[in-house]
Amino acid sequence: MAYSFFRSLLFRLDAETSHHLALLGMKWLHRLGLLSRIFPKPAPKVTQLLGMQLENPVGLAAGLDKNGDYIDALGALGFGFIEIGTVTPRPQPGNPRPRLFRLPQAEAIINRMGFNNKGVDHLINQVKKRRYKGILGINIGKNFDTPIENAVDDYLLCLQKVYPYADYVTINISSPNTENLRQLQQQDELRDLLTAIKAEQKLLHQRYHRYIPVLVKIAPDLSEQDVTNIAEIINELGIDGVIATNTTISREQVQGLAHAQEHGGLSGKPVKYNSDKVLSMLATQLAKEIPIIGVGGISSAQDVRDKFSKGAQAVQIYSGFIYRGPELIHEAVDACSR
Ligand SMILES: Cc1cc2nc3c(=O)[nH]c(=O)nc-3n(C[C@H](O)[C@H](O)[C@H](O)COP(=O)(O)O)c2cc1C
Q1: Is the CB of 318 under 6 A from ligand 1?
Q2: How far apart are CA 170 and CA 213, in angstroms?
Q3: Which of 123, 141, 21 is nearest to 71 (CA)?
Q4: According to CATH, what is the number of the domain 43-335?
Q5: Is residue 158 in contact with ligand 1, taking CB distance under 6 Å?
Q6: Which of 325, 312, 237, 232 is CA-nearest to residue 272?
Q7: Which of 159, 166, 268, 301 could serve as 138's disulfide partner, Cβ 3.0–4.6 Å?
């Protein structure tokens, strides 16, 4: 109820302005102690994932809080875990505006933000200041002007910097908005990248006496053969987990709608079909001990049940949260069986 009121005001503004206003508003409501009165948290449904204790299995997906500027307010809403980023080694402005579009008839979003972020050092400062005690994932990427052949350097630098502050780290190789990034999902590139990441994780584990799981986030636009190749490499290298999926470049589900032809990644209800397909394929091919976080198109309790029945051990939401607000967190948590 409260959220539909805020939403009706915010949706009158362009998508990116309302995004910033909503986050800023939440931050202030939280500082004034009002956020959790207006939007009470769901009761805990404690879940173990990769040795971490999640307050519940419903997390916030990457990209809403790219810089870690809103961790406490988002934590107060009752997400079971929060993923911040994608962060890159150096700050970068991202693509020119407009770069964020709502497709309300489809409860969808198209974005071509292009990893706009204030850089990894800023994010770490924000993480150090947080009061939120829950599980915090940090999603890392490469700068737009780092040649793809040198991408591994950017990922390693971010991994080294965030390792002491993260509960888990996500390697984002699936954003459609950084040129050639998704090439890193191809067999040889993926093996090289993940071998280097795994070796660095081992060194960091020894240095900090703390093992931080590394997950890989993949696209929904993958063929069965692509998924087979990816699963094989993940099994072979012992990558800790997979996040499936990012946004899609397909427009099949939104043909004819305003903004459908904008370039970028499509998220929300229309990505669910492809995300679920990739999730199912992956679940049959990954070693049993490697968990999958299911993300893409969750906007109801049934969508959450679908992700679990197809093999997810936890879920994340983004676009559904924009359309439905904190009510969706409650509904999603209720749908998770213990
Ligand atoms: C505006 C916007 C920005 C996003 N930015 C990122 C990002 O920086 N890194 C990332 O891994 N995923 C990013 N995503 C993808 C989401 O984390 C999620 O994987 C995707 O939107 C599918 O989930 P949904 O249908 O619940 O939105 C972004 C999504 C949106 C809508």
Answers
A1: yes
A2: 9
A3: 123
A4: 3.20.20.70
A5: no
A6: 312
A7: 166
